[in-house]
Amino acid sequence: MLQPEQKQAARAIVERLTEPCAHCDARHLSVCQAVEDPYLEQLAALVTTIELAPHDTMVTEGDPAGHYFNITYGTVKIYKLLPDGRQQIIGFSFAGDFVGLSVRENYAYSVEALTPARACRFDRKRLEGLLTKFPKIEHQLRSQTSDELAIAQDQMLLLGRKTAKERVASFLLQLSHRAKRLGQPANPVVLTMGRADIGDYLGLTIETVSRTFTKLRAEKLIALGANNTVHLELNALSELSGAWN
Amino acid sequence: MLQPEQKQAARAIVERLTEPCAHCDARHLSVCQAVEDPYLEQLAALVTTIELAPHDTMVTEGDPAGHYFNITYGTVKIYKLLPDGRQQIIGFSFAGDFVGLSVRENYAYSVEALTPARACRFDRKRLEGLLTKFPKIEHQLRSQTSDELAIAQDQMLLLGRKTAKERVASFLLQLSHRAKRLGQPANPVVLTMGRADIGDYLGLTIETVSRTFTKLRAEKLIALGANNTVHLELNALSELSGAWN
DNA sequence: CGACTTATTGAAGGTCTTCAACGCGTGTGG
DNA sequence: CCACACGCGTTGAAGACCTTCAATAAGTCG
Predict the structure, then answer these.
(1) What is the pLDDT of residues A197-214, one digit of tens each?
(2) At A101, is the secondary structure helix, strand, or coil?
(3) Three-class SS state of B114
(4) In the 8-state DSSP scheme, what is residue A183?
(5) Tens of pLDDT along A2-11?
(6) Cross-chain Cβ contact B88/A160 below 8 Å
(7) In the prediction, which pLDDT does B29 show?
(8) A4-158 in CATH: which number?
(9) Which of A93, A133, A241, B181 could be a cystine partner for A97, CB 3.0 to 4.6 Å?
(10) If we measure between CA atoms, which residue out of B18, B85, B9 comes closest to residue B49?
């Protein structure tokens, strides 16, 4: 027979299935915060939850853009390819991040899971239909898009003008800031992506990333721990990264 | 006494001053197309026209973001600086382009005129106030922001993974496409910015840009004409640029 | 015309890349 | 249980591309 805690857990699972949004862990982080509880069911009606294993593809560049996604667990990479296979990672997305914000007819990038991951999938057409009813969502989408634009612009500065050391320092600080924003500890950060993906994000090769980590460790700006944990010397890294202060 | 054409010109000027938006050359290109004629005056009420000479600063990174701008004439550059003076140009804006789309409290970049330029300046707070009345504008702003995001992502691919030659080829094609979109000839493009700014846009130095132009000319992919005009071998450049087709 | 800015070209140098080898941890099958 | 393969990260050596430093040429404007 079920123990009380088990009963509770079972009920929670059922509720998640029937009212997924009301219990969404990522809700306060995302567009969905624009919708008040009583209207959540309208949002829930056009949501599917999807599960991804590492290397699973969520979105393929060039395909018709039929869905928006809200990552609720794990890490995914958003990337573009050149015809000869060179890859540029546009960004990593974690729980709470919205993916697929384009207004265009086709996706301009591919999205792939790096870790086991979960996401809410919104039908784009139907979500667009809700916008007149919930203008707050449109505003939320714009706000989100605008934030992403600002991040992209920072990354352009990084890719165009920073040295390898500055790039890696900036990257580690990004992870730290993101963790803090999500209410997690800012300091030991966990690398949920490999060296290859860090390289493709920073416009460097695997080897340069590795060498740069080694140098930063030698200078005691970082310490590599177990399980891809990295302890950061936040102030020194911030100085290095070219932050304005 | 005034000739008929002069009279007509004078009347046009007066109308421009009293109903700036109705006669805006850039209107069909910008957010303003979301507002129907009868409501234009509400938009016009919060607009100021500003004139800029080359090197005039329109926006300074870090300043409170009080205005949106719509370029109606000339070329401006949008850029970010590192503390030591390294510069990354985020983009060039021409007639019809909207500048300052951020949702944040402070500008994340500076904007400076490269040529004599003109712009419509919108009070941000007051424009935001109109959004509930004209939800179309909010949508238009989101759409515009989303387009800029897609452009920024393309540029990240360029900065992170393309060679100097590919970067310059991509840049020239950008200019060509933009000209076509504005209904101007796609082929001989005019460079309204200097080598230094092209370099700061492409993540290269002046010298590399110059050398790359020379190489492209030697390979007959471009021909440099008078007045900063460049004739393009569109197909060959497109091949070179890493475009997908 | 002469001073200034901007573009081009050359030579040397540096940072990052490429190619290659090695170490480490994990998982699987004999 | 161990051997071995495989993926991933690290390190070394050589090389390439772009940068830096420097000089010259071309264009602009008073």
Answers:
(1) 999 999 999 999 999 999
(2) coil
(3) coil
(4) T
(5) 455 555 555 5
(6) yes
(7) 66
(8) 2.60.120.10
(9) A93
(10) B18
